[in-house]
Amino acid sequence: MHRNRIIYIDQLKGFLIILVVLGHVIQFMYSPDNFDNNRIYRYIYCFHMPLFMMLSGFVTPIRLERFSQVMHKLYSRFMQLVIPFISWSALDLLLIGRYDVFRVLRNPEYGLWFLWVLFWINTFYIVGLWALKFIKPSNIYISILIVYIALRIFRLLFSGNYGIDLMVLYYPYFSIGSVLGYIASSTHSYNFKTRL
């Protein structure tokens, strides 16, 4: 199946990945207590993850009409994000003996946290949009706000666990990207339904 892609989004993601690598190189070049004082490191970390989340929101579909489409999208996101997250943690445990997979699930900051956080942000967002389409008038902005409130409630219950603090932190950026994608899809001939 051919998927429509926006080349400049892919190029921007590639540039951000290079910045992530550079940031980690700077972390390991400096002492663990001093790398945050590096100016390049600080520039990179002031925008690269928020921009990643915005790009993810931009290409996330906003029109999933049937429940089967919702389940297919969530399954796809699970395979793209959670399986690599768990696999990396398991591999790290086997090769280095450093991490416990269950510890990483409780505290994803010890693993590839962004995969875990992005999966759950996608899940809340997609399910929220689909569920709220039954409420009239259906509105993407109201849906985004309700999902954000739900995440804040989860934060009260699970703060410090399961990456919920990071989800609350990055969901607004994801939402901004989603709104920009929504505006772009309604003002241009782009078809965002089939985007990754």
Can you give a write-up of this model?
The chain has 196 residues and is mostly helical. The protein contains 8 helices and no strands. Helix 1 packs antiparallel against helix 3 (48-58). It is globular and about 55 Å long.
Radius of gyration: 18 Å
On the 0 to 100 scale, the average pLDDT is 81
In whole angstroms, how far apart are the ends? 12 Å
Indicate the proportion of strand residues: under 5%
The SSE string, one letter per element, is HHHHHHHH
Low-confidence stretches: 192-196
* Helical residues, percent: over 70%
**Which overall shape is indicated by the principal axes computed on the Cα atoms?**
globular
The major beta sheet can be summarized as: none
Individual helix count: 8
Structural class: mainly alpha
Total DSSP E strands: 0
Outline:
The protein has helices at 7-29, 39-45, 48-58, 67-95, 101-106, 113-132, 140-158, 164-187.
